[in-house]
Amino acid sequence: MSAQNVLFDVPGPRARARYAVYTVFTVLAFAAALAVVYLGFNRTFGEGAPPLLSARAWAVNPEGQWAADKWAPFLDPATWTDYVIPGLQNTLTAALLASVLAIVFGLVFGIGRLSDNRGIRTVSGAVVEFFRGIPLLMLIFFTMALPIAVNQLLQAFGMPPLTPGTFQVTALTAVVTGLTLYNGSVLAEVFRAGINAVPKGQSEAAYSIGMNKGKVMRLILIPQAVTSMMPAIVAQLVVLLKDSALGYIIAFPELLRSFTLIGTRYGNVIPAAIICAVIYVVINISLSRLAIWLERRNSRRGRATPHVGAVGVEPSDVEPVGAADTGKRPDEPGGH
Fold first, then answer.
1. Was domain 92-252 assigned CATH 1.10.3720.10?
2. How many CB atoms sit inside 10 A of residue 143's CB?
3. Rounded to whole angstroms, how far apart are CA atoms 91 and 254?
4. Which of 33-38's residues contact partners 24+ apart within 8 Å by CB, and which partners?
């Protein structure tokens, strides 16, 4: 009996018939949804529209969103140089800065939650739970409003407010700060869970050869935790990249805002949304593929045979081969 038969019962004739019916209904429902979307944005669906079975209903309506002139702006190089590429650069800049800072934030506070010092554990836990519990959009708004809050505090203490222009927060700074604080707090829990998931024998063996906790954490636990938690880390970075679109609320010129301007200018909201979604999907798939490559590379590196002297083990500390088999030292008679 194969493993597949043990773990999964082969469906009988009635079950196969039910599955076929479910498949047909699913395909028909999906096709109906696509037809409604096509006809709706083609403006040939609803009151006053031609019959659904007529050729006029399915022909491309010049006034609809599927008309060729709605897609023509994306064939113009000026659309890409003036809108798409600058928005993409701003999105990638914000995402890259926030990713690096969020990983550093997550490592610091994730390790802080595992500290032997109770005060560090408490402060790290409070910081992580606080920023993880606040919506990202509120963090962006709070960062933008920081100069106003500082002036109000100065006035409350009887001090003159800051000179206009002395302390300003740019849209990029607000987006990066919000993304860093929120996603960094989530990554802190990811790193903490990954470190705790490493078998205890790894750290115990390192302590037994005289390594302190800093070396154990840096050389033993963190590399293994990062390798094992790579899918979760990349998934959070993908979320970070998509959340950068919230910068649209504070007029940050990122990718979504650029396509919104294109849709407003040319009246092609649906084609602009489709092109924008395709770009986001390509970026996220590329990021996921990079993570898979890194995971496989680390796995191959982890299977390498450790050499003598690695991780603080000196050649003199290694027991000669065969000494344990006879129970005698090599320099004793009958030893190897």
1. yes
2. 20
3. 5
4. 38/66
pLDDT tens over the chain, length 336 residues: 455 555 667 888 888 999 999 999 999 999 999 999 999 888 888 777 888 888 888 899 888 889 999 999 999 999 999 999 999 999 999 999 999 999 999 999 999 998 888 999 999 999 999 999 999 999 999 999 888 888 888 888 888 877 776 778 899 999 999 999 999 999 999 999 998 888 888 888 888 888 888 888 888 888 888 878 888 888 899 999 999 999 999 989 999 999 999 999 999 999 999 999 999 999 989 888 887 787 777 667 654 433 434 444 444 444 444 444 444 444 555 554
Alpha-carbon distance 86 to 96, whole Å? 15
- C-alpha separations of 279 from 94, 218, 286, 310 in Å: 16, 37, 11, 45
Q: What is the domain partition of the chain in residue ranges?
A: 18-66, 92-252
Alpha carbon distance 70, 268 (integer Å): 5
Q: Which two tokens stand for residue 164?
A: 């206009």
The number of beta carbons lying within 10 Å of the beta carbon of residue 28 is 10
